[in-house]
Amino acid sequence: MTIRAVLAGTGHYLPSKILTNDDMSEFVETSDEWIIARTGIRQRHQAAEGELTSDLATHAAHEALADAGLTPDDIDLIVVATTTPDFTFPATATIVQKNLGMTHGAAFDLQAVCSGFIYGVNVVDAMIRSGAAKNVLLIGAETFTRILDFTDRTTCVLFGDGAGAVVLCAQDVSEDGQGVLASFIRSDGHHKDLLHVDGGPSSTGTVGHVRMIGNQVFKRAVTDIADAMRQCAAKVDMPIEDIDWFVPHQANQRILNGVAKKLKIDPDTVISTVAKHANTSAASVPLALHTAIMDGRIKRGDTVMLEAFGGGFTWGAALLRY
Ligand code: UT7
C-alpha cells in the first residue's frame, strides 16, 4: 500500500457572459473564419464587472466539494493557481478560504501562468505523500480578460475567464490503485520576451497587458509538451499508448493536434474544450478535466494525462488514475 493524492471530486465555473468571435471582430480587425482556422476557438466567457477571480474560484470550489462529498471543514489546504489574482496581496487562495467560511487550514497562490494547475498537482501530490496535507482544494482560476489589450488582435482573441477545481485526498491505495501516479515540471526563464505581461508591482507599478509572439511560442509548446508527457509517463514505465485520456492545456486546437500527431495519440482520446472556453490559462486543464468527467468520457479507473505549457516558459505533465 502507498499514500497517494486521489481525485475525489471536480467542479467548475464559467461566467455567464459569452463573447463570440463575431463580438471580437467589433473590437479588432479579425474574423470568425481566421480565429477558428488558426485556433479552433469559437467563443470565450468574460467575468462581469466586479466579479473577481476569487468569486470564480469559490463557485468551482463549492461544486468540487459537493462532488467529493466533503465540506470546507474537511479541507486543510487551498492552493489557487492564478496569474490574475484579486490583489497583489493577500493571496486569492486566502480570500477563497474566507468565502468558504474556513477559520482553519492554510492557503496560498501558485504562479506558473498556463502551467499553474500542473505545477499545483506536482506540489499538492508531494505535500500529500509527505503527510503535510490531507484533503486539498486545488483550483485554477483566472479573470484573464482583465489583462488583455483589446486593441491587440494577436492576443485578445485567444483568452477567456473561468475556474476549475479539484479535491485531492490522501488515501492509502494499492500499487495499481487510484491517485496521482507521476508528475513532471520544467521551466526556462530565457524567453520572457516571447510571452509576458508588460507590467507588475515591482517593475512598472501597473498591472500590464499580455504580450506574445504567438508563432514562436507555438513551436516550443508542441516540442516541450510532448517531451514532458514522455518524461512523466516514463517515471512509472507507462507506455503513452496505454493511457486512456489526455487532458491538455487549451491554448490552440492546432497545438493539441500537433502533440497528438507527434506522440501517435488517437485524437478521440484528447479532450478539447478550446472551442467553447478559449485559453483560460491555469483554469483550462481542470475545466477540461471536469467537462470530460461530467459527460461520462473519463470513468473511475481510467488513466489520465494532464499537460500544459505557458509563460515563463513553464511546462509539465501529470499522470493519474481517476
Ligand atoms: O497558453 C500559453 C501558450 N500560448 C500559446 O500556446 C499560443 C501559441 N500560439 C498560437 O496559438 C498561434 O501562434 C496564434 C493563434 C497566436 C497565431 O497563429 P499563427 O498561425 O501562428 O499566425 P501568425 O502569428 O504567424 O500570424 C499570421 C497572420 C499575421 O499576418 P501577416 O503578418 O501574415 O500579414 C498576423 O498579423 O495572421 C495575422 N493575425 C490575425 N489576423 C486576423 C494575427 N492575429 C490575427 C487575428 N485576426 N486575430
User: What is the CATH-assigned architecture of the largest domain?
Assistant: 3-Layer(aba) Sandwich
Strand arrangement, major sheet: 1-7-6-4-5
Give the overall pLDDT as a whole number.
98
Quick one: CATH class of the largest domain? Alpha Beta
The number of helical runs is 10
Backbone structural class: alpha/beta
Q: What is the C-alpha radius of gyration, as a whole number of Å?
A: 18 Å
CATH topology of the largest domain: Peroxisomal Thiolase, Chain A, domain 1
What is the tally of beta strands?
Answer: 13
- Report the major sheet: 5 strands, mixed
CA distance, first residue to last residue: 17 Å
Write down the secondary-structure element order: EEHHEHEHEHEHEEEEHEHHHEE
What's the number of domains?
Answer: 2
> Roughly how much helix do the residues carry, as a percent range?
25-40%
Beta strand % = 25-35%
Description:
The chain folds into two domains: 2-173, Thiolase/Chalcone synthase (Peroxisomal Thiolase, Chain A, domain 1), CATH 3.40.47.10; 179-321, Peroxisomal Thiolase, Chain A, domain 1, CATH 3.40.47. It is 32% helix and 27% strand. The chain is built from ten helices and 13 strands. It has helices at 21-24, 32-39, 53-68, 92-99, 116-130, 153-156, 214-235, 253-262, 274-277, 284-294, and strands at residues 2-13, 17-20, 43-46, 77-81, 106-110, 135-143, 161-173, 179-187, 195-197, 210-212, 245-248, 303-310, 314-321. The strands form four sheets. It has a five-stranded mixed sheet, with helices on both faces. Strand 4 (77-81), helix 4 (92-99) and strand 5 form a beta-alpha-beta unit. It is globular, with a radius of gyration of 18 Å. Bound molecules: oxa(dethia)-CoA. The site of oxa(dethia)-CoA (UT7) has 19 residues, from helix 2, helix 6, helix 7 and strand 12.
